[in-house]
Design brief:
- Two copies of one chain form a homodimer.
- Helices cover 42% and strands 15% of the residues of chain A.
- Chain A has two domains: 70 residues, Orthogonal Bundle (Arc Repressor Mutant, subunit A), CATH 1.10.10.10; 108 residues, NAD(P)-binding Rossmann-like Domain (Rossmann fold, 3-Layer(aba) Sandwich).
- The longest helix of chain A has 19 residues.
- Chain A contains nine helices and ten strands.
- By secondary structure, chain A is α/β, with parallel strands linked by helices.
- Chains A and B meet through helix 1, helix 5, strand 8, strand 9 and helix 9 of A and helix 1, helix 5, strand 9, helix 9 and strand 10 of B.
- Chain A binds a DNA duplex through helix 1 and helix 3.
Amino acid sequence: MDPSISDATVGRLPAYLRAAIELAALSLPSVSSDRLAEEAGVHPATLRRDLASLEITGTRGVGYDLKYLVSQISLVLGLTQEWPVVIVGAGNLGKALANYGGFADRGFPVAAMVDIAPDLVGSEIGGVPVHPPSELGRLVEEEDILVGVITTPAAVAQEAADLLVGHGIRSLLNFTTEVLEVPNNVTCRSVDIATELQILSFYRQRGRAAKTGTGVPLQS
Amino acid sequence: MDPSISDATVGRLPAYLRAAIELAALSLPSVSSDRLAEEAGVHPATLRRDLASLEITGTRGVGYDLKYLVSQISLVLGLTQEWPVVIVGAGNLGKALANYGGFADRGFPVAAMVDIAPDLVGSEIGGVPVHPPSELGRLVEEEDILVGVITTPAAVAQEAADLLVGHGIRSLLNFTTEVLEVPNNVTCRSVDIATELQILSFYRQRGRAAKTGTGVPLQS
DNA sequence: CAGTGTGAATTTCTTCACAGCG
DNA sequence: CGCTGTGAAGAAATTCACACTG
């Protein structure tokens, strides 16, 4: 069912998808691996091997059909369905993300926010209502929420994670510096700005080009 | 001068640093590679090899001295100096980042913000003054700014990057979905939330555990 | 003939396993 | 004796290079 799509490949798929969408918007019917790889910033052979591993095939002498490419990559990434999101923590970052249109556009509508501050509860931010944590269970149920985004202060991030996991959420995106402990049927990715800045400073200092996009802590 | 510190190693250093700081805060004098690796979420042999490649040595039978560890990793990452930051784009995300204490705490003080909106210019956000783009040159000079953080709308992100690079900034952290073109003496890392969500949805859908923290697009 | 798909070579990264030091 | 440091094995990822096809 999942014949060996490597982690390295998965990490590149969003770049391929973005590049393909961009080129499709130019009304090009197809692309060569050379061109698409250029746009995505990878080696052409790597791109061909990645696509082959997804069983996405091109036409020899021509290239890959762009519409097909977009639909197949979307399929593999699971983007044919919507993934409603709840944002836990209505501080600055939470607000920024709620106002940020990019979520809904890409199939991750922000269905609700949760915060403990009584003065925020009941308000709306970017059209998204803020609820108290006690309502999380109901929200998850009613809004079919699949993803939890954690933008609380670091000190309570683990608490937020436990709450989300306790209500059946199995995908977490963590914006705090805290490393979260989660059961291993839960997928958690962390975006840590400090990590990014530190890596940036390493490469700057050494004058080396940053090759691969490692970054991002993570757990199962 | 830089005897082979691999990209994979660099990507793990921030996690080691964080773990070491955490353990040092518990007043432990030293740690074994087993313990530190556990905290950082890597294999103990990987940790030992990484540290050895930085010429950080432990004591056999004992472990690694925590103070030494923290200071040496900081040194390698270039965190012995401050890296003043300018945030370009005072929208929601820019504001959130300006208000976010974590920057300054970790040696990346937010020295200034830049925005084109006349009603924002002259105001302060989280104690950080907002300037018009025309003043960027002076700011970079006077505040010794080394890093540019791009939080503009995607459509003008390239423009922002050009502006920063034009004023001598050689480290960019890009929060837009746009892929930036930069000269190759400039280090640019991108944090793209859509990418993270898409990867999350892949692993969730397949029920596979997300192993390595690939993520993050990037260019030279 | 342009460009895919893929064996094979190569490089890089990880893990094992253990000699040897404090 | 516990734990580092590392040679060697193994696994994974990347890149080469070219046969082959539309």
